[in-house]
Task: structure prediction
Amino acid sequence: MKILLILVVTIMLLSLYKRYVPILGVKCLPMKDSNDPGCYIVDVRDYNQSYKSPVKGATNIPIAYLKRYWHELKQKDIYVVASTPLEKNMSIRFLKRRGFNVQGFMLTDCNCRDKHQTA
Result:
């Protein structure tokens, strides 16, 4: 019984870690810094949000579809556009596990768009 409780708590902690703990070394960068021709912009927001405020030159693959369509991304440096920290954390972790080099991110619902901040 004690081992089962430890296992359940461990699984819960891992789930919380994957969702809410920021990824080290990936910075919040303004869009003007992502205009590098070697950088591929991936918008992981829902289609409703990305339609209302599109990001020029971005490929829109919502986080819910990322597992299905990640292989269509070009093997380049990637810049992630997300609306929430949860979307950002989940998508960056997923892309890094697949071998992509995530250079930075931008949160559209955040006030830090013009500041460099490590998260």
